[in-house]
Design goal:
This is Copper chaperone. By secondary structure, the protein is α+β, with helices and mostly antiparallel strands. Helices cover 32% and strands 28% of the residues.
Amino acid sequence: MLLKVENMSCQHCVRSVTAALRALDAEARVDVDLAHGEVRAQGAFTPQAAVEALAEADYPAQLIAADD
């Protein structure tokens, strides 16, 4: 899935976003693009769960594209 994520500006943000998603699935693949404010993630969680986990970590997000 591809998510647009707000409030990301540094490597601490990258670690926090990655940790929030890996709390849902420890084996998740998380690629953060700070320049574009996007996160590509693959794991055993729904887009809604990912958005909720990121919101709880103070990184509001919205789904741009779901994986088929």
